[in-house]
Design brief:
Blueprint (H helix, E strand, L loop, with lengths): L11 E4 L6 H17 L4 E6 L5 H14 L3 E4 L5 H10 L6 E4 L8 E7 L8 H12 L13 E3 L2 H15 L8 E5 L9 H7 L3 E5 L20 H10 L3 E5 L6 E4 L5 E2 L1 H12 L5 E5 L4 H9 L3 E5 L3 H10 L4 E3 L5 E2 L10 H15 L3 H8 L3 E8 L5 H15 L3 E2 L4 E5 L2 E7 L5 E8 L2 H21 L2
Parallel strand pairs: 2-3, 2-4, 3-6, 7-8, 7-9, 12-13, 12-14
Antiparallel strand pairs: 1-5, 4-5, 9-10, 10-11, 14-15, 16-20, 17-18, 18-19, 19-20
Helix pairs in contact: 1-2, 1-4, 3-5, 8-9, 13-14
Length: 458
């Protein structure tokens, strides 16, 4: 069976018992331990989310790490931001392995490897894949096996709780807030934090259930009709929906509108940052973020798509804030570089309360954002060549072109992105504009050119 496709740029992820098995996780975790040991590390954390298959895979990962000679703390179930917080703040730890499939349907699972600062492996994932398929795994003799210690996940959650309240001040006012936990791991801590700050909470899908009975735990592509309806019905000024492991937070206004992540980032920047501070954004974000942020006196730096790359760019540039269009938010202003949707949601709610405004009013102030996203089906064997040809044309035709991740053409009235999918026979295109008409025209113009190139390969 060919399972190379489950080894991705920032994690390993597949369908349990179809292309992902406990044995796969055990071997990958052992290679992770080998890499940590080669760097002088001796102890790591092992955790996971609330999926039905997670316990089996967590213990598989633990077995691989111990058999490779490292000691391990076992801490689960947890939201992944809490796990990363534990790794980052524990000086005895040299990294971590976390079992999750994030926002994917319940039959999926996977594993993500973290560095000692809580950020994810990036280039190391390429090495793990190579060693896995080369069979280069170093298991130690039985007498050199590592040890394991099971920690209370309640204690880790309590430590995270105390960290948040030490960093996020009490709001001057309180709000009515609706949260949709999607039956995921965020339910283990998020409601308690909002309640601590005095907010009136209406919680839905707040019972942890790893079978995700209400469908895919994805606040972007899953069913969010319930929270949208409640927003309109109650008039609550803000609603928040999390994904399965708590690393995405989608925000809804009193009209039931999903607020673009770029708007949330601008709101945070205005309230948290100083002039000239750096904001990192991924290439999928609307060009409006860059334009507005720079008008507000901030600097911006573009990154490849993926939290591991965002964290790396943020560190390299000493950034203070980061955002991906997929609702991953980074808060290095507080000392860490991994994304934390739970802390972000608390911050947004408290800042909104202090502003005395609804999220809809904030959107109307910064927005609107006009973005169109489409997928163009192409054969896997030529999709990268097609984008290469588009890159040649774009760089010879336009002065402001980014090739960090695909091809992004910046224009006076918007931008256009063409990016080959890493996992599907698709080229993803994104057009944005200062008006709806501008976005539509940009999409028409550049997809026409892209189609001309595609025709040469068919």
């Amino acid at each position: 069976m060919n399972i190379e496709h489950i080894f991705r740029a920032y994690d390993i992820r597949g369908i349990v018992d179809k292309d992902l098995f406990p044995e796969t996780v055990l071997k990958a975790a052992a290679i992770f331990a080998n890499i940590v040991a080669e760097r002088g590390g001796k102890k790591v954390a092992v955790g996971g989310d609330v999926r039905v298959s997670t316990p089996s895979l967590v213990y598989a990962a633990l077995s691989g790490i111990i058999a490779a000679g490292l000691d391990a703390y076992l801490v689960f179930p947890l939201p992944i931001p809490v796990f990363c917080n534990f790794v980052w703040r524990n000086e005895n730890l040299n990294g971590g392995a976390f079992v999750t499939a994030s926002h994917n349907p319940p039959q999926y699972n996977g594993i993500r490897f973290r560095r000692e600062d809580g950020t994810g492996f990036s280039s190391e994932n390429v090495e793990i894949k190579k060693r896995f398929f080369d069979g280069r795994i170093n298991f130690v003799e039985w007498r050199d096996f590592g040890t394991s210690r099971i920690l209370s996940n309640k204690e880790i959650l309590d430590e995270y709780f105390e960290f948040i309240i030490s960093k996020v001040p009490e709001p001057e006012k309180t709000l009515r807030i609706i949260i949709d936990g999607k039956h995921g791991a965020a339910n283990l801590i998020s409601p308690m934090l909002f309640t601590h700050y005095g907010h009136e909470l209406i919680a839905i899908n707040d019972v942890v259930d790893g079978s995700f009975p209400t469908g895919m735990p994805d606040p972007l592509h899953g069913d969010v009709s319930q929270i949208k309806s409640l927003m309109v019905k109650t008039g609550a000024p803000i609603g928040i929906a999390y994904d399965g492991d708590g690393d995405r937070a989608a925000f809804f206004d009193e009209h039931g509108r999903l607020i673009p992540s770029e708007i949330i980032a601008l709101f945070l920047a205005e309230n948290l940052l100083k002039s000239n501070d750096i904001i990192v954004y991924n290439t999928m974000c609307s060009s409006m973020l860059k334009r507005k942020a720079e008008e507000m006196g901030f600097r911006t730096v573009e990154s490849r798509v993926g939290d591991v790359f965002m964290a790396q760019v943020a560190k390299e540039n000493n950034a203070k804030l980061g955002v991906e269009e997929s609702y991953h938010f980074f808060l290095p202003i507080f000392g860490f570089y991994y994304d934390d949707a739970i802390m972000t949601s608390i911050l947004v709610a408290n800042l909104l309360a202090n502003a005395g405004k609804s999220l809809g009013e904030i959107y109307d102030r910064y927005g609107p954002i006009f973005t169109i996203r489409q997928n163009i089906s192409v054969d896997d064997s030529v999709k990268f060549q097609i984008v290469d040809k588009f890159r040649e044309w774009a760089t010879n035709t336009y002065s402001d072109v980014s090739t960090i991740d695909g091809v992004k053409i910046y224009l006076d009235n918007g931008s256009f992105l063409a990016r080959p999918s890493n996992t599907e026979p698709l080229i993803r295109v994104v057009a944005d504009g200062i008006t709806k008409e501008a976005a539509e025209e940009i999409l028409r113009k550049f997809t026409k050119k892209l189609q001309e190139i595609i025709e040469r390969f068919t």
